[in-house]
Every structure is written in C-alpha cells, then in structure tokens.
Design brief:
By secondary structure, the chain is α/β, with parallel strands linked by helices. Helix content is 58%, strand content 10%. The protein contains 14 helices and seven strands. It has a seven-stranded mixed β-sheet, with helices on both faces. Strand 3, helix 6 and strand 4 form a beta-alpha-beta unit. Helix 2 packs across helix 3 and helix 9 crosses helix 13.
Length: 359
C-alpha cells in the first residue's frame, strides 16, 4: 500500500511539472509565429527516440497546444469573403461556424438561392462546394459561370477526380479539392485529417490551409486519382462492412446493451463505430458506397470474399481456413513496418508536391 501511495505522489508531482511546461509552451506559441508541425517534430525527433516516446504522442501534444492558444492570439487574420454552396448541410455548417468564429465573412447559397447567385458568388474570394456527391459536378458547372477569375473554387466531396476535373474545366481561376476525413459531428479540427488535392494556383488557398493547420488539422497532399484509389478501401469498403454488420445485428435483434456488459474493448469500439454510422444521413452513407464504379466493384469483390470464406466455415474446412489466415498473416507481416511509421502532418508552405498514400 505505501508503494502505491508513493507512486501516486510521484505521479502527481510529474503531472504538475508537465502542466506548468504545457502552459509555458502554449504561451510561447501565442506570443510568436508558430512553426509547422513537421518542423517541431524534426527538432525533437532524436530526443523522442532516445526517450522511447512515439512521435505520434508528441504530435498529439503539439496539435493540442495549437488548439489551446487563446482566441485573441489567433484573431490576426485578414477577413475573407467566403460563400459555401450547401452551407446549411451538416458539413457546410461546420465549416461556416469554424471560419466565422475567426472573423471570416461567410455567406450560404442553398438550392433555393440561385436567383442571388451573382451577388453571393461573384464577390467571393473563396467558394466552397459542400453538396451531396451526386450533385457536386452539376453544382460546380452551374456556379462557375458566376465566378470572377480570381475566385478560389474548392469542393469538400469524398470523391476527388471528377469534381477536380469539372472545376479545372469550367473555372479559369484557382482550384483545389479537399476531403475532410471526418464527419460533421466533431467540435473542432483538432487531430482531424484533411486530404488536399492541388489543382491550380495553389497559393490562393494557403490562408485556408494555414487556418486548418492552426486549428490542429493534419493535411495530406495527393493527386485526385491517388485519393480516389485509396478511398475505395479506406472509405467505401469500410462503410459496407459496418453497414452490413449493423443490418445483421438489427435483423437478428441482438441485445446490444447486454452484449456490451461482457464485451471486449474491440467489440465496444466496433459497436460505437456502427452506431455513429447509423446516426448519419442514410443518403450520405449510401452515396459513399455507390459514388464510383470502382467502389461498387470493390464492394462486390469483398462480398464475394465473405461468401467464399463463409462456405469454408459451413464445410468446417479447418485446413483451408488456416491457410487463408496464414496467407493473410504473411501479407500483414510484410506491411507491418508501414503500419508502425508515425503519421506526420504534411507541411504545405508554398510548394505542393503530391505524396503517395499507401496502405
């Protein structure tokens, strides 16, 4: 018992010192120009390695410090004129709130507002397209006719190739595709990933990217084609897996609450993810799965894989199942070094160089 008490006292003292140091760090950031996350990681990487601290832990500390800077220290922004097409949708509202709170002038254009399109779009410095996937390209074409050559046009849809091509084709000014890798229920951009697909005149978007980073967002640069290829696996098939699990649980009338009383952490986490999926708009979930032919084909292939493995289970073919496991085990062992690499924020200072995203 004394040992436990001594340990607790020691931990308290360490926490007090840590809190004081974090307070100093936040004050220093508020009083000076903030270096990029990559710079801060590079400076201390040897120390982290020596101490045995994962870089991801330090990255979380750095991002949290950025997000904790008093608002008065981040109000030195040039107010921008922003129009969000679809700004009353859940994701549109999130961006409107986040941009407005730091001083930008944000207007909204909804489906019933096109008679005011000239006023809402022609004077905007940034037009952000936040509409369902199926309408994105048509909305881009319709909006482009009202834009000034200097207006920065950007979409935040979960597919990037077609929208980026449409923006480049129909608008002569700055173009960029963004994909926020999170749902609209978040309270801030802290620790959230945003995929960035440069299009044209990237410098026109630097203030927006700086804003996302200043709020603790993690920016990842790639081409629209790379993005869409990865989203087939990262997003579409994962949605289908969880969609299927949710439908299965509902059909079998599983007592979810009772199952959680004896659940493993992994099961509880999976149920939480499924619950969050089914708290969203059903159109959004279905659109993500049906967005491209590649996504539909991948989901079909995944379903066939499930069926093939289920047939092995039905036949109680132990040898075949073990062989499947071992083959897959070898695949993951080859990739394990990739999984263990810390995730860095991609610095976007001036030059945009597409980075390959790999799984």
């Amino acid at each position: 018992m004394p040992l436990k008490s001594s340990y607790s006292d020691q931990l308290k003292k360490t926490d007090q010192s840590l809190i004081a140091l974090l307070s100093d760090r936040i004050s220093l950031l508020a009083a000076s120009e903030q270096p990029s996350l990559d710079e801060q990681l590079a400076d201390v990487a040897p120390l982290l390695a020596q101490a045995g601290i994962p870089e991801s832990v330090w990255a979380d500390v750095v991002k949290s410090c950025h997000a904790s800077i008093p608002k008065s220290a981040t109000n030195h922004v040039i107010p921008r004129q922003v129009t969000i097409i679809g700004g009353h949708g859940r994701m549109g509202r999130l961006f409107k709130e986040q941009l407005s709170v730091v001083g930008h002038n944000v207007s909204v254009l909804e489906n019933d507002d096109w008679e005011y399109a000239d006023k809402l779009l022609s004077q905007a410095e940034l037009v952000l397209v936040s509409v369902p996937i199926e309408y994105t390209v048509d909305v881009i074409k319709r909006a482009a006719q009202y834009l000034a050559p200097t207006t920065a046009l950007c979409d935040i849809t979960s597919i990037k190739t077609q929208p980026t091509q449409a923006m480049l084709e129909h608008h002569c000014g700055p173009v960029m595709g963004l994909h926020p890798m999170f749902g609209p229920n978040i309270k801030s951009f802290l620790g959230q990933k945003v995929v960035v697909c440069p299009g044209r005149n990237d410098d026109s978007f630097q203030w927006l990217l700086d804003f996302l980073e200043s709020k603790g967002g993690e920016l990842i640069v790639c081409t629209p084609e790379e993005h869409d290829q990865m989203m087939v696996i990262i997003q579409a098939t994962q949605h289908f897996c969880r969609f299927s699990l949710g439908v299965f649980l509902a059909q079998t009338r599983v007592e979810i609450e009772q199952s959680l009383t004896m659940s493993t952490p992994n099961y509880r986490q999976e149920i939480d993810i499924v619950k969050r999926l089914f708290s969203q708009n059903p159109n959004l979930c279905v659109d993500i799965m049906l967005a491209t032919e590649e996504r539909c084909n991948a989901i079909s292939f995944l379903a066939n894989t499930y069926s093939r493995l289920a047939r092995l289970v039905a036949r109680k073919d132990r040898e075949a199942l073990i062989k499947e496991f071992e083959n897959t085990q070898s695949f993951f062992e080859e990739k394990i070094s990739t999984f263990l690499q810390p995730l860095h924020t991609t610095a976007l200072q001036g030059d945009f160089k597409p980075q390959n995203i790999s799984i």
